[in-house]
Design goal:
Elements lengths: L7 E5 L7 H13 L5 E5 L5 H13 L5 H19 L2 H28 L4 H8 L1 H16 L4 E4 L7 E2 L6 E2 L1 H14 L4 E5 L2 E3 L5 E3 L5 H11 L4 E6 L20 E3 H9 L10 H7 L3 E5 L8 E4 L1 H4 L9 E14 L9 H11 L6 E4 L5 E7 L3 H11 L1 H6 L4 E14 L9 H11 L4 E6 L5 E7 L3 H14 L3 E7 L3 H21 L2 E8 L3 E4 L9 H8 L1 E2 L2 H8 L6 E6 L4 H4 L2 H6 L2 E4 L3 H4 L3 H9 L7 E2 L11 H9 L4 E7 L2 H9 L6 H10 L8 H4 L2 H14 L8 E3 L13 H8 L3 H13 L2 E10 L4 E9 L11 E8 L7 E6 L3 H19 L5
Parallel strand pairs: 1-2, 1-9, 2-6, 3-6, 9-11, 10-12, 19-20, 19-23, 23-24, 24-25, 27-29
Antiparallel strand pairs: 4-5, 7-8, 11-12, 13-15, 13-16, 14-15, 16-18, 17-18, 20-21, 21-22, 26-28, 26-30, 28-29, 30-31
The protein binds adenosine-5'-diphosphate (ADP), aspartic acid and magnesium ion.
């Protein structure tokens, strides 16, 4: 070997070489790596090994279609050759395919005739995909000007077949590689994954998914500094992404953790891959062919990883298709060697035991075995304990099929208190019952036997409990009026920033109008959702809406109520009870019956939040300010303010030149009022806000306690349509004009305000303020709030700014969402 520059071995899985473009991509990735000699182990093109084995199966059952299927496979490769290579370089590859095609047809004909295929035949046929793949990549590299060579691993890699799978003959293989190297000095060597030969030269394989193993074997043979396993995900993920879409890539993991995860079914890496790497201390790196910018996951010895930050639980996995053998009997108590006897009996009938768990009472032993071995295992147990059963010392040997083993794996579990508690409470919360529990003696894993039908739910639930708890918030948005729409737009625009900067993942899983809803794992194109409701939505069902938001695999959920509905507000209590937080600009709950309000606020002591900053002053920090004052021990004696953006506008622009009713009409035309302006002029909206503020001050008033002086005159009462109302309102214009003139003569202005003090006296009315007062200098739809407190006794603390409009209101709601995320992550105040 070259002693100055170490080799790096790269292994590309089937998905990384699925077609001509992918081979090109592989070549580009290799060239982009730091300079140095490269071994390149390749799998067969995606699904080719399956297809080859299927040919054998068809021929065996005399299904004539094996021939056209073989032809299709050859054509797929021939087409890839044509798409990948320049015309001059194609002929040799086509010749290879033709020759191999004839050989395969002969072998398969033998299978067809004999209606059977030996294991040797299957091994031979299965390996062709890798032979073709390696030759195609090598030809492509050479056509691009590379001095590449390829190795048929069957000529170098020698393995002894054995019970525990093929065992590498290291010295023989090293010798053969050295001989090959002396004849082939190339420094970019393409190697067939998966295939090998026996000492007699019979072609064999490293068994399904064995190319990863090939990668680390050749890493060892080339004394590589690193083995890079290129696949189609960003690294070793915290769980199988097909079952846990929210899984995240793990930065670093020890060999032990990777072995354990692979043993428990994490398909990303073949379990035996670690062996050669561990023996020589070669780090493995898992990287994504489709996202090479991601640094991937490194797998190395715990010593080498040193202080690299790692989670206590590196990952989760499941093995499905498990049966439980349950041996129960009082006769086992205190009798030594019972488990050993059982193991011995199972070994004899070649049953592999995935997990064993013995209750500390020793009253029962529970074994998890592959479902296919279940009956055999039960019979072996019955035989082994024949005498005890006859004597009644062992009462039963039950076989329970349809189970799964769920495992959490991590080196840090042993030193982190509470891991088991988190694991089991996550399962309990998801309503998954546990049949048996085992903790490996290394304390590197906790496993539980659960019903197969629960396995995905269980996996997602434990995953959420450990990996996601601080980062993912499931969101439901009810109401797609102006505010709901603006909120969806803001969420869409900010989500990437929040994810990037704060690691916060806001996942909108349901959106509903008053009649329809759309649900999904994580809705995208949020601003387009309201428009899609009518075409893609389903009829609204609030129960189903809630269930979608309250997904058991996500740790936290919130419903954002952007309606003005009392009926929706009536549901908050049950949502909070179910653990769903509530954020809203809807005033109905905050100003609703006191008992209900108290219950909602009381949920806070149970860690459920009810947030409603946007109910008063839209996006202005009104409630937050008030809360800060109260919590820091200030005594709020009075809050006075212009609380209605609509009426602020009306009185800010009305200078007497136009009649009052005209100004209201104009505000309505500009969209500043409710569709029916009486909703604003009645003063009830201001009164509700005042109730919310009072309660925040600690004065528990009801809406009925507010003295409301509305702006609907006697002449306009009983009007029909809004238009009719505006016409009748004109009947009061003269009186209003006179009032304004009189006030102005005294250098004062009119403002429609709400005032509440610490005694609970609350009043909404049209008041006069001197021209130099802060309330006299408002613009457009400004709100203003003046807080008089023990600390701000001389001059009140004032908050002023636009207090209406969909954008600022949605901004206030969004702010609450972020506050909530901060709280649940334990970072907020
Ligand atoms: P290749 O063809 O590259 O060998 P595989 O399909 O054998 O790829 O393995 C990669 C796949 O393993 C991923 O696409 C993913 O779906 C699956 N997988 C299962 N568990 C995990 C895990 N814990 N981390 C990453 N991938 C996993
Ligand atoms: N092609 C082989 C298989 O599909 C080996 C591998 O890709 O790892 O099993
Ligand atoms: Mg694989």
């Amino acid at each position: 070997m070259d002693s100055t520059t170490r080799w790096v071995v790269h292994k590309f899985g089937g998905t990384s070489v699925a077609g001509a473009d992918r081979y090109r991509g592989v070549a580009a990735l290799l060239r982009a790596e730091p300079p140095g000699p490269q071994g390149v182990v390749v799998s067969a093109m995606s699904k080719v090994t399956d297809a080859l084995l299927d040919l054998v199966a068809r021929a065996r059952r005399r299904d004539e279609s094996y021939l056209p299927a073989l032809q299709a496979l050859l054509t797929r490769h021939g087409d890839t050759v044509d798409a990948l290579l320049p015309p001059a370089a194609r002929a040799p590859l086509h010749a290879v395919l033709e020759r191999d095609g004839r050989d395969l047809a002969d072998v398969l004909r033998g299978v067809w005739l004999g209606r059977s295929a030996s294991e040797l035949t299957e091994e031979l046929v299965a390996g062709y995909g890798e032979l073709w793949s390696a030759q195609m990549l090598c030809a492509h590299l050479r056509a691009e000007g590379d001095d590449a060579a390829w190795i048929d691993a069957r000529e170098v890699l020698v393995v002894h077949p054995g019970d525990g799978g093929p065992a590498v003959d290291w010295s023989e293989s090293a010798e053969r590689l050295a001989a090959w190297r002396s004849a082939n000095p190339a420094t970019r060597v393409v190697i067939t994954g998966f295939v090998a030969a026996t000492p007699e030269g019979v072609p064999t394989t490293l068994k399904r998914n064995g190319s990863d193993f090939s990668g680390s074997i050749f890493g060892a043979l080339f004394e590589a500094s690193e083995v890079v396993i290129w696949t189609d995900v960003d690294g070793v993920l915290s769980a199988d992404p097909r079952r846990v879409p929210e899984a995240v890539a793990v930065d670093a993991m020890s060999y032990d953790e990777a072995c354990e995860l692979a043993y428990f079914g994490a398909k990303v890496i073949h379990p035996r891959t670690m062996e050669p790497a561990v023996a020589r201390g070669i780090p493995l790196r898992i990287r994504n062919t489709f996202n090479p910018a991601h640094r991937g996951s490194v797998i190395a010895s715990a010593e080498r990883l040193g202080d690299t930050p790692r989670r206590p639980v590196a990952g989760f996995s499941t093995i499905d298709g498990i049966s439980l053998v349950n041996v129960e009997g009082t006769g086992m108590i205190g009798v030594p060697g019972v488990a050993q006897r059982l193991f011995g009996a199972l070994r004899e009938v070649v049953v592999s035991v995935v997990l064993i768990s013995q209750a500390s009472s020793e009253h029962s032993i529970c074994l998890a075995v592959p479902e296919a071995h279940g009956a055999r295992a039960r019979e072996a147990a019955l035989r082994a304990f024949g005498p005890e059963i006859a004597q009644g010392a062992i009462q039963s040997v039950h076989l329970i099929p349809g189970q799964s083993v769920l495992a959490a794996v991590g080196d840090g579990m042993a030193h982190t208190p509470g891991v088991a508690a988190t694991f089991f409470s996550a399962l309990a919360k998801a309503g998954v019952s546990v049949r048996a529990i085992a903790q490996g003696s290394s304390e590197r894993n906790i496993s539980a036997v659960i019903e197969r039908t629960d396995s995905t739910r269980a996996l997602r639930a434990v995953h959420a409990g450990f990996v996601l708890s601080e980062r993912v918030l499931s969101v439901g948005v009810l109401g797609v009026g102006a505010v709901g729409r603006a909120l969806l737009q803001q969420l869409e625009a900010q989500a990437p920033v929040l994810r990037e900067r704060l690691g916060l993942d806001l996942r909108v899983r349901a959106v509903a109008s008053s009649s329809r809803m759309i649900r999904g794992e994580a809705l995208t194109d949020l601003s387009g959702v309201p428009a899609r409701l009518s075409t893609q939505g389903e009829p609204l069902d609030l129960g189903a809406f809630e269930a979608q938001v309250r997904a058991s695999h996500l740790p936290h959920a919130v419903i954002v109520d952007c309606t003005a509905s009392d009926e929706v507000a009536a549901r908050y209590a049950s949502w909070l009870d179910a653990g769903v937080h509530v954020v809203t600009p809807n005033k109905r709950a905050g100003a609703g019956p006191l008992a209900r309000y108290r219950a909602l606020r009381g949920a806070e002591s149970r860690g459920r939040h009810f947030l409603y900053e946007a109910t008063v002053g839209a996006g202005l920090p009104v409630i937050a300010t008030l809360r800060d004052l109260v919590r820091t021990g200030d005594r709020v004696t009075r809050v006075e303010g212009v609380l209605s953006g609509t009426l602020s506008y009306v009185f800010n622009v009305w200078d007497g030149a136009r009649p009052f009713s005209e100004v209201v009409r104009d505000a309505r035309a500009k969209g500043y009022t409710e569709p029916d302006p009486r909703d604003d002029l009645s003063g009830m909206d201001v009164a509700r806000k005042l109730v919310i503020l009072a309660r925040e001050m600690g004065v528990e008033i009801e809406l009925g306690d507010v003295e409301v002086q509305g702006l609907i005159p006697e002449v306009a009462r009983g009007a029909g349509s809004p238009e009719d109302f505006l016409t009748r309102l004109a009947g009061d214009d003269a009186r209003m004009a006179a009032r304004l003139a009189e006030v102005r003569a005294r250098s004062k202005v009119l403002r429609y305000v709400g005032v509440v003090d610490h005694t609970g006296a609350a009043r909404v009315h049209l008041a006069e303020y001197p021209a130099e007062h802060a309330f006299a200098r408002l613009g457009a739809t400004d709100n203003i709030f003046a807080f008089t407190t023990a600390r701000y006794a001389e001059r009140p603390l004032v908050v002023q700014g636009p207090g209406a409009g969909p954008e600022v209101t949605a901004g206030g709601v969004f702010g609450d969402l972020l506050r909530l995320a901060g709280w649940i992550a334990g970072r907020g105040v």
